[in-house]
Amino acid sequence: MLHLLLAVIYLSFISLGLPDSLLGSAWPSMYGGFGVPVSYAGAVSMIIAVGTVVSSLQSDRLTRRWGAGRVTAASVGITAAAMFGFSASHCFWMLCLWAVPYGLGAGSVDAALNNYVALHYASRHMSWLHCMWGVGASVGPYIMGYALAGPGGWNQGYRLIALLQTALTAVLLLSLPLWKRPAGQLAKESAGPALSLGQILRIPGAKAVMATFFCYCAVEQTAGLWASSYLVLQKGVPAGTAARFASLFFIGITAGRALSGFLTLKLNDRQMVRLGEGVIGLGVAALLLPLGGQAALAGLILVGLGCAPIYPCLIHSTPDHFGSENSQAVIGVQMASAYVGICLMPPLFGLIANHITAALFPFYLLAILVLMALAHEALLKSSGKGV
Q1: 220: Cβ contacts below 8 Å, ≥ 6 apart
Q2: pLDDT per residue as tens digits for the range 268-277
């Protein structure tokens, strides 16, 4: 039964990634019809992120009351409804309206599934599950590209994703009996009332892990968004080549997570996070040193590979650091911190590049990486696992 449930969770992670890359791939075909500037994609993305933060912070309360299975099924159903709403939108304010349930659904399912896997499965499965998210995020643009080539346009692309999400919702509803846990284990995980944000912040190590997640997502999203521009503007790499290697950054994360699943058979979560930080450091060094465009391209791939193990291994180690009774609450604030980092840090570098110079890109990544490493070591020290 556990293996059958694991297959359902794998499908859920693929589904979680499917919509995440749709807006970026469809927006060039969307904004003209809405009569808005191209920059308005940022407003939709921000609404989704805010919704994700809100639902992540509520995940502990929802999961304690309804259980991970029901929360996951309901969240995917809400996301499916939002995708249908996107497909039917004919003006920009409708897109913004449907971005609200999209963000709320995405945050709940992300936190609930991550906590469930952290509690019940080995670290390798967490890495492979996040690899499945990358598969979904890679497949989404292909589905949208297929739709854009046909008469249905981007609306049809969102409609196809909505149908896939609806099918998964049905699968999740049928799988609800598989999510039941032994009574003693359920009592331990659900002991006590849901924790408030203030109570979570008072848990030793909570602030350190929030800072770690904030910094990790700041590195990942800043690198993904600005790497291509940096390569073109500062390293003289042709735009087409830079674009291809920028996509390799995300492929590096996905492939790296597949590899990380095997490495966790030999290394623990703490060692995997440190290894990832070290590989990111090597990648940033290759960007910093005056070694030419090829070294910079290799450095970008190294940054992607280094990012691969950090997020899933941090998630998987949460029950070990904070206890199974607190893990859902802590994972909720971790998800919220991650999305705050996504919202704030890439736009901040955009301002730096615009008003100072894009040459500061590797220094910016290095500064965040150092802060992430310090925050992670503080987390390990607070839980007595720093050796």
Answers
A1: 253, 307, 311
A2: 999 999 999 9
Query: What's the rounded Cα separation, in Å, for the pair 278 and 241?
Result: 26
Stated pTM of the model: 0.80
**Alpha carbon distances (Å) from 278 to 9, 275, 282, 283, 357:** 30, 5, 6, 9, 26
313-324: per-residue pLDDT in tens? 999 999 999 988
Give the H or E element holding residue 305. Answer: helix 293-307
Q: How far apart are CA 101 and CA 47, in angstroms?
A: 10
> Which residues 6+ apart lie within 8 Å of 307 measured at CB?
216, 219, 220, 223, 252, 253, 256, 276, 280
304, 286 contact by CB (below 8 A): no
274, amino acid identity: R
What is the identity of the amino acid at 23?
L
Q: How far is Cα 256 from Cα 261, in angstroms, rounded to an integer?
A: 9
Q: What is the DSSP string of 201-259?
A: HTSTTHHHHHHHHHHHHHHHHHHHHHHHHHHHHHH---HHHHHHHHHHHHHHHHHHHHH
In this prediction, residue 10 has a pLDDT band, given cuts at 50, 70 and 90, of confident
Determine the average pLDDT of the residues in 211-226. 90
CA R_g for the chain: 20
Residue 336, SS3 per DSSP: helix
Both structure tokens of 310: 């950090």
Q: Report the residue count for the chain.
A: 387
Alpha-carbon span 379 to 100, nearest angstrom: 33
CA–CA gap between residue 17 and residue 262 (Å, rounded): 22
Average pLDDT over residues 132-151: 82
Q: What is the token pair recorded at 119?
A: 């509690």
Return the structure tokens found at 322: 């904070």
